[in-house]
Automatic annotation (TrEMBL):
Pfam families: ChlI, Mg_chelatase, Mg_chelatase_C. This is YifB family Mg chelatase-like AAA ATPase. SUPFAM superfamilies: P-loop containing nucleoside triphosphate hydrolases (SSF52540), Ribosomal protein S5 domain 2-like (SSF54211). Belongs to the Mg-chelatase subunits D/I family. ComM subfamily. It comes from the Bacteria. Residues 288-383 form the MCM C-terminal AAA(+) ATPase domain. InterPro entries: AAA+_ATPase (IPR003593), CHLI-like (IPR045006), MCM_dom (IPR001208), Mg_chelat-rel (IPR004482), Mg_chelat-rel_C (IPR025158), Mg_chelatse_chII-like_cat_dom (IPR000523), P-loop_NTPase (IPR027417), Ribosomal_Su5_D2-typ_SF (IPR020568). It comes from Denitrificimonas halotolerans. Gene3D superfamilies: 3.30.230.10, P-loop containing nucleotide triphosphate hydrolases. Residues 263-286 are annotated as: Disordered. Keywords: ATP-binding, Nucleotide-binding. SMART domains: AAA.
Length: 499
């Protein structure tokens, strides 16, 4: 009778809780029983592990085998436990020294030949293993991803026999060394490539500087999508912690999480997307578009064409920066600190207010079109910009105004002032810190209150006007908010209500 315990990690959302793989061998008819809430892929691991061990010229124990995945109330799925199960069987049958396995955590799916295949969710497991003070054994294809957790000892293997030879001190493995600094896969288009639209460009810089949400409204072909695609290129580079958060989310949804890393994500879901696709969900909850846009930009084109119920679920994450998905057996929390950029036409045909007078929509049609967007959702969008039609020209566009690099420099300076003053962007200020860092003179405070009353702005909208004014002051390097900042901030709110 023998017992072996191997450490591994499950995947629950973007977290990696610890799992102990316990193997117990006793005399009796040969059998293998898996307990501990294993799902189908885990139950099938016994066949993969048996073939992998036999095809590696090792001995599969011909005993009664009980395999427990603890804790028992945590659901386990996928093939990520194959490698740990195989090592446990070899250690329990004295083919490996058992004492040396306590300092390691193992992840990997086994092929029938004994080769180790990549899995999803390696980065969250690597961060958790580093916190636990253990080394991590991963498939070779996942090694570069795991190496993002600096300070972690990683052993990358391609075949089960490599690990057996290491633990038997026949051919010791060397800790994996990262291949080098990863570079972004591509660069975002430059702001100078957009012809005209100086007011909209100014709004993009303001939105980037304070992490404000932005709504672009105008006729078709005025460059709304073109402008929105430039916003990620204006944002400050990701910090190490932010980059790890982005990569961890990508790690649990695909096998190539480092593609484009470290770069702020830009997500553009279609207006036919369902609520689970947008915010996450499913029988096995996965991150949605708002989580995939974490620390980046979520662009919703043709905003009124989205189902109203789908849009309403954005209200909570826009305020909190995360989304909680509840299921019968658990609650999962996904990060969703994104910057919303939306685009819409002013009416169903798109030409209401256009100088060419092409609009043929009735007032009732326009009203029904606009009521697809609720007041509470619009209140959470700080900047409302009308994008007018520019003069048609087929000449090669000349670059004018700020470049993305110049705009990013302004944005980074403004963000640095915000971090030094309050530790977060202006858009993330809560009520207490807002009153502390957005002080107004008595005269300006009364003026803003009166203006908000005339424009029928809610208290939330007024607070957001104050946040935008704080950002405008930061862009100018001003310590205090002045009347000019309040006036410009109100114009960004007023341009939409005018329509």
């Amino acid at each position: 009778m023998s017992l072996a315990i191997i450490h591994s990690r499950a995947q629950v959302g973007v977290e990696a809780p610890a799992v102990s793989v316990e193997i117990h061998l006793t005399n009796g008819l040969p059998s293998l029983t898996i307990v501990g809430l294993p799902e189908t892929a885990v139950r099938e691991s016994k066949d993969r592990v048996r073939s992998a061990i036999l095809n590696s010229a090792l001995e599969f124990p011909r005993k009664r085998i009980t395999l427990n995945l603890a804790p028992a109330d945590l659901p386990k799925d996928g093939g990520r436990f194959d490698l740990a199960i195989a090592l446990g069987l070899l250690a329990a049958s004295a083919q490996l020294p058992g004492g040396c396995l306590d300092r390691f955590e193992c992840l990997g799916e086994l092929a029938l030949s004994g080769h180790v295949r990549p899995i999803r969710g390696v980065l969250p497991a690597a961060l958790a293993a580093r916190a636990a003070g253990r080394a991590l054994v991963v498939p070779l294809a996942n090694a570069e991803e795991a190496s993002l957790a600096t300070g972690l000892t990683i052993y990358a293997i391609d075949h089960l026999l490599e690990l057996v030879a290491h633990f038997n001190q026949q051919t010791p493995l060397r800790p994996y060394q990262a291949q080098g600094v990863l570079e972004p896969a591509h660069h975002y288009p430059d702001l100078q490539e957009v012809q005209g639209q100086q007011a909209a460009k100014r709004a993009l810089v303001v939105a980037a500087a304070g992490m404000h949400n932005l709504l672009l409204s105008g006729p078709p072909g005025t460059g709304k999508t073109l402008l929105a695609s430039r916003l990620p290129g204006l944002l400050p580079p990701l910090t190490e912690q932010e980059a790890l958060e982005v990569a961890a989310i990508q790690s649990v949804v695909n096998l190539e999480p480092l593609k484009g890393w470290p770069q702020r994500p830009f997500r553009q879901p279609h207006h036919s997307s369902s609520a689970p696709a947008l915010v996450g969900g499913g029988s096995k909850p996965k991150p949605g578009e708002i989580s995939l846009a974490h620390q980046g930009v979520l662009f919703l084109d043709e905003l009124p064409e989205f189902d109203r119920h789908v849009l309403e679920v954005l209200r909570e994450p826009l305020e909190s920066g995360y989304i909680v998905i509840a299921r019968a057996h658990s609650k999962l929390r996904f990060p969703a600190r994104f910057q919303l950029v939306a685009a819409m036409n002013p009416c169903p045909c798109g030409y209401y207010g256009d100088a060419n007078g092409l609009c043929r929509c009735s007032p009732d049609q326009i009203q029904r079109y606009r009521t697809k967007l609720s007041g509470p959702l619009l209140d959470r969008i700080d900047l409302h910009i009308t994008v007018a039609r520019e003069t048609t020209s087929l000449r090669r566009p000349s670059q004018s105004g700020l470049s993305s690099a110049e705009a990013m420099e302004q944005v980074c300076n403004a963000r640095q002032r915000q971090l030094q003053r309050q530790g977060c962007s202006n858009a993330q200020l809560n009520l207490n810190t807002l009153m502390q860092h957005c002080l107004l003179s008595d005269e300006d405070r009364i003026w803003l209150e009166q203006a908000s009353e005339r424009l029928n702005l809610s208290l939330r909208a007024t607070h957001r006007v104050l946040k935008v004014a704080r950002t405008l002051a930061d862009l100018e390097g001003q310590h205090s908010i002045h009347r000019a900042h309040l006036t410009e901030a109100l114009q960004y709110r007023f341009s939409h209500t005018q329509g």
